[in-house]
Amino acid sequence: MAQSRSEPVSLAARDIHLAFGDNAVLRGVDIDVPAGSTAAVIGPSGSGKSTLLRCVNRLEEPDSGQILIEGIDICDPDTNLDAVRARIGMVFQQFNLFPHMTVLQNLVVAQRKVLKRGKSEAVE
């Protein structure tokens, strides 16, 4: 996605590489997501979509490259990942909901636990 210099970017990933053994899953991935936008990663099975998303939230550590969230380098070992993750929302395919909770309860549980929001505020 090409960005103008005046348009703020929430997510910038540069030259992301990740391999599992001999299997190179991500090979030089670059992406910019403008502030305030919603992005979808679409592609065939096995193309690295979930792996890229896992890297963006540092659930997987890339072998090389740089990932900036609102200008914060999340690959820097000194970065407070919990603080950055508290500002990121992601949905993964086949990541199960808590079976004893409703869909709405599953959606607000992180806001209530991590952000310490009340029930009514989290539901809004």
Report the biggest beta sheet as strand number plus sense, adding barrel if it closes. 4 strands, antiparallel
Rg over CA atoms: 16 Å
Spatial order of strands in the largest sheet? 2-1-3-4
What value does the average pLDDT take? Answer: 87
Low-confidence stretches: none
Give the overall form: globular
The total number of structural domains is 2
Number of helices: 4
How would you sum up this structure, described in words?
The protein has 124 residues and is of the alpha+beta class. It has 2 domains: 1-90, Rossmann fold (3-Layer(aba) Sandwich), CATH 3.40.50; 94-124, no CATH class. It is 23% helix and 26% strand. It contains 4 helices and 4 strands, in the order E-E-H-E-E-H-H-H. The protein has helices spanning 49-56, 81-85, 103-113, 119-123; strands at 9-20, 23-34, 64-69, 72-73. Strands 2-1-3-4 form a 4-stranded antiparallel β-sheet, covered by helices on one side. The radius of gyration is 16 Å and the shape is globular. The model has no long low-confidence stretch (mean pLDDT 87).
Describe this structure in a few short sentences.
The chain has 124 residues and is of the alpha+beta class. It folds into 2 domains: 1-90, Rossmann fold; 94-124, no CATH class. Helices cover 23% and strands 26% of the residues.
